[in-house]
GST N-terminal domain-containing protein
Amino acid sequence: MPAANRLTLYYAADTPFPHRVRLALEEAGAKYDLILIELSNKPDWYAKKVYPLAKVPVLVYGGPALHEDEAPSPEAATITESSVILEFLADLFPDLLPADPVLRAKARFFIKTVDEKFSKTFFKFVIFGGSMDEMLDAVAEMQALLPDTGFAVGAWSIADAAFAPFLVRLESLLRKNFCAFADGVAEKTLTELQAPTFARVWRYLEENVARESMAKTWDETDALAEINRRVVSIQSAAQNNQ
């Protein structure tokens, strides 16, 4: 079902949060426009004209076509925060959540767990070289929420849009032996994740990667290059503040 109004997404390639929204838009079959924001070199107009906090994603609903350096029209709605946008899209496109209220509640709990627990451990691990055991524990917690087959609540939903961008980045960063990891940590963590203990979440990852929505929205080379630039910048700023 198409949205009645134009959809415009401000996004960045490296961060999981706008990737969530792109996955949901693709799964919904929505027509939407994209405006790329490079987080390592944010344009001044973005905070001034679009979102004062200069974060992504931002979804603009309604109004005419937008271009860089242009503010959304007054009649358009500007929606921020990826989890809020996912809920909004599920209202526009009901197939993004199951009809069963119990499964809908489970989907929301799944998203809440990603946001409040998994994402924090993920960023600590990949940016600051956090604990491998804590990262594996976080993956195990998410795995425990998955059903035996299928996606987070059976059929694909916004719950999977919330989690899959983190999981695909974690696998890629480990496989590529990302620069933030100490010697041997990437290889050891990846080996642990490929062990039978994590067979369910690994199969879940493969099933998400196989979807057309992921193929259209995930460019590993571009994403990892931008992640590298951002991590170097964050680590440099942290050292300067010590």
